[in-house]
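User: structure tokens for Methyltransferase domain-containing protein, please.
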Amino acid sequence: MLDALAVESGMRVLEIGTGTGCNAALMADVGAQVVSVEIDAEVAAAAQDRPARRGRRPGRGTSAPIAPP
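Assistant: Done. Predicted tokens:
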């Protein structure tokens, strides 16, 4: 999937659905600035340590209660 996106250094990427955080980490590894949004608080919390394990600083935005459809 990442090959199809052709993400390059300096690109700004918005990822909807963080999941494990793997795709965001891979895009950051090539130099993209990545913002990833996850609706499930438990999934987001689980992905929170991935950037630190890769030598990056995780960000933390504000959260608002949003009821899933």
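User: Anything notable?

Assistant: The chain is about 35% helix and 15% strand.
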